DNA sequence: CGGCATCCGACCGGATACTG
DNA sequence: CAGTATCCGGTCGGATGCCG
């Protein structure tokens, strides 16, 4: 399986949480689903400029397996699949909020100091 | 330079924060330094079972470059180097706390449900 | 003691092509 | 539309050996 999550023995809480959100786009997916409530595969793809379908689906599957998101398939033609956050996903997003705020401040500080790499 | 951090243009705060803490041991280093205030290289190494010297020093250097930790060299024989958190490192650790709590709950839930991979 | 240099395997993630 | 399959390169990270 192309699973990157360890789901293994964890040293501490941070370790376990990082395991679940590590992956280039996962936090962005969380963010996106939290903002819009529900998103289709294509919408998600368009929301994350630069993501490949492979990585997107891989991340989505892992996040589903981790109980963070829900995948609802509509047996229609053309096919439709909607992704949304589970309760765990929502609480994770809440837990991520302070980190996001910290990062935001960091971005602003870097911009002010002109330390941003060219 | 063997730098894994992008320090590049960020999409959002989470993105910027994840950039700084991604790396197998960084959050643990943060945790360790926060608990003990100051740690020598060898102590840190012993605190993180399984870490290689290469990764430890690499992470420490990146975290120093990112302004998260302070490196103090004592010109003695034998040499001594002490690492400690900067103010930014401390605030990052604070921002990480909810995530750690979330992860801790996740570990407990996994244990209860016996879902932990063998 | 506290590093640095080098080699190397694993896997993370991108590009492309194909399918129901 | 929403994937799957395959190939492939770059990087992450471990092992080993050497140095001030």
Automatic annotation (TrEMBL), chains A, B:
InterPro entries: HTH_HxlR, WH-like_DNA-bd_sf, WH_DNA-bd_sf. Pfam families: HxlR (PF01638). One of its GO terms (molecular function) is DNA binding. Residues 12-111 form the HTH hxlR-type domain. Keywords: DNA-binding, Transcription, Transcription regulation. The keyword DNA-binding applies. The keyword Zinc-finger does not apply. PANTHER family: TRANSCRIPTIONAL REGULATOR, TRANSCRIPTIONAL REGULATOR, MARR FAMILY. This is HxlR family transcriptional regulator. It comes from Thermasporomyces composti.
């Amino acid at each position: 399986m192309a699973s990157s999550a360890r789901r293994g023995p964890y040293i501490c809480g941070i370790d376990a949480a990082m395991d679940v959100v590590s992956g280039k786009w996962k936090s962005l997916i969380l963010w996106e689903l939290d903002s819009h409530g529900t998103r289709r595969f294509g919408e998600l793809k368009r929301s994350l400029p630069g993501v490949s379908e492979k990585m997107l689906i891989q991340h989505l599957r892992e996040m589903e397996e981790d109980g963070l998101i829900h995948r609802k398939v509509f047996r229609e033609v053309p096919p439709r699949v909607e992704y949304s956050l589970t309760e765990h996903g929502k609480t994770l997003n809440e837990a991520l909020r302070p980190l996001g705020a910290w990062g935001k401040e960091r971005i602003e500080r870097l911009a002010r100091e002109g330390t941003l790499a060219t």
